[in-house]
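Predict the 3D structure for this chain.
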Amino acid sequence: MRVPLSWLREYVDLPATETGRDVQAKLVSAGLEVETVEQLGAGLTGPLVVGRVLTIEELTEFKKPIRFCTVDVGQANGTGEPQEIICGARNFAEGDKVVVALPGAVLPGDFRIAERKTYGRVSRGMICSSDELGMGDDGTKGIIVLPPEHEVGTDATALLELYDEVLDIAVTPDRGYCLSMRGVAREAAIAYGLPLRDPALLDVPAPNSYGYPVQVADPVGCSRFTARTVVGIDPEARSPIWLQRRLQKAGMRPISLAVDITNYVMLELGQPLHAYDRGRLDGPIGVRRAEPGEKITTLDGTARVLDPADLVITDNRGPIGIAGVMGGANTEIADAAVPDSPGSTGQVQGTTEVVIEAAHFDAISIARTARRHKLSSEASRRFERGVDPQAAAAAAQRTVDLLVLLAGGTAEAGVTEVIAPSAPRTIAMHADHPDRVAGVHYGRETVVRRLQEVGCDVYGQDELVVTVPSWRPDLNEPNDLAEEVIRLEGYENLPSTLPKPPAGRGLTERQRTHRRVGRVLAGAGYVEALNYPFIGEQALDQLDIPADDPSRRLVTLVNPLSDEEPALRSTLLPGLLGALRRNDGRGSHDLALFETGLVFRTPAESGVAVRLTVERRPSDAELEGLNAVLPQQPRHVAVVLAGAREQAGWWGEGRPADWADAVEAARLVAREAGAELLVRQGQYGPWHPGRCAELAVVADGTEQVVGHAGELHPRVVKALGLPARTCAMEMNLDLVERASAGAVKAPRISSFPVATQDVALVVDTAVPAADVERVLREGAGELLESIRLFDTFTGEQIGAGKKSLAYALRFRAADRTLTVEEATAARDAAVALAAERTGAVLRGA
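Done. Predicted structure below.
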């Protein structure tokens, strides 16, 4: 809503020294979003005067038509002689009154006017258009032609109201009343503590049976309809300059007098209006829902097919307007300056009798109709935010008065008013409710005073009964009233109080695990990459995911951002591998990325969610049923690697990332979560069948597979355009957390020395090293501090189908220094158990 400050002063006696910036600060403090204050006329200086064109000489020897004019500017030029001016515009004639910028004037954009020789003549000034004066769109693209009553030599800056300040307010949906000068003036009056001259306080005649007939078939969609008629209108009457300028400053284009008046009253009172040419109406005006297949051509010239939910205005022929949105072309006001049809003989017949509509339509119905037809108008913007139903009669009267005053019309005595019965809205509220909401003591007197300032009627002492004003449909409950008191008392006056959380609250164990995993992966050299949680079936096909895999149970969105990715991700790999591919393509070849986040899978037995009531708390059974049909949302962790894992340099040779790095990332995650990870050979979709590790944990007493790690299959690498030998790991972090032994304990540092024993075992090639390590750990007992595989060997020395695994075992006691015998006994026990469980033989034995 654009609010000219000069117009605002008509309703509130603001101090003369107050600037637009001052008013902006006051309104912002009251809760309005005043985005900018535009300075109209900035950079414009005179002399700028009214002139009368005396002569026009056509100069035809140039490429474009040029006119050499003499213009009478009175004594404004100091001599009284006609001013010689070169002009290219052609929309004025001899005798017309125009706006003249004399030498020395500066127009917006630092355009300085001076005498200069051009087209073989000397031009001493400029005849101005509205664009050159920064006035905005006036509906014409030529010179401003003024009404003949303005005297020559008059100052045009005052006449055209070129100097002003305009506040641009972003009106939020709950403050539809501020889409009018009346509403903004009310806020300004409250902010300054000044009285308001309400433009809606007019003497309105009582309804009678002589008005234009109106039939409302849908009182829910149209709760009020006022119709007034004005006859004897001069079709050649034009909007006065003050009216045009106010519309332009408010961001609207002047069109014709009758239309300009309805737009002006809408801006003034917030009530949209529509004017019908009574000569084009056929029978009574009706309000009803559209019938299937009905059509209408709206004022913008577009033929539209109506929906049965659309509220329409009709006469005997059918729809003549879409209620609250836009009128129909078959009853629009005809301008006397435009022929009625292409076959006109030149005798132009304009509108002389007007029927004025001022109605109140249902906000939701208008909003849906405007969106359905993609037809947002100034009227629909106001109706869908809530219009004061009590202002309809005053708006119709104001329109009648202006048509009589400016168009020479006569108001007919008939007044039609169709009103659906309704009662005032009341809200019960404790007088101290705003105090409890804000944490500030306002007191009853302040609460009552502030509510009365916004237009409420307040009764009662401790328990207040508040009657809400008709222009505030957003006030529906005590918290709404409390907000009014708080904002008018000033949000800036509310104390800053930090919340005091109860002891024992904080991050959940799941959140702590999530953060620890992120930190340990970052510490291992991985970079976190956050990706969009959307995928398509094609991504799963490229990853060779089996058709019966749970990852194929995608949660498809109704309104996806992209048709190629219509579902929520069921695995983190597509997003991570896409990030790796993009970075590799842009020159970063040594990559290690990770991501933790939710994945989404539909439940095995899908159902339909039941809509729960808001009248009571849902039962446990209802919540359980609702949760049962929700998508499964486990938290996963994934890493991808490509290029060098260790860089080469003066310190030595580097090495490329391989499948072992992906497995080690899984071990890091499990260790940080406090879970024991079981690693064994596996085979699963995206991974190379010979370089894939299956990851498992023991959770809830059973062994569960939580993910896979290793090198990706060459077919997947090729399909996704990835670097060769790309590796990846993905595991279910929730399952890993459930396998945790509890809170991760800090290691205890012993002051006693360590005893190291090395052991090399020969086992079958098919026996996983992880199985041997697990058995050694079990057999060594409590004295074992750590175990590390430091060498593997295969060759003729140990026989075909065999491999040698060399482990370093570290033993330490918490309370004493171990003897050689104790360390040796623990080692021998570990070797004995390994021989029993895995068939291991001590190498060299």
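The two ends are 94 Å apart (CA to CA).
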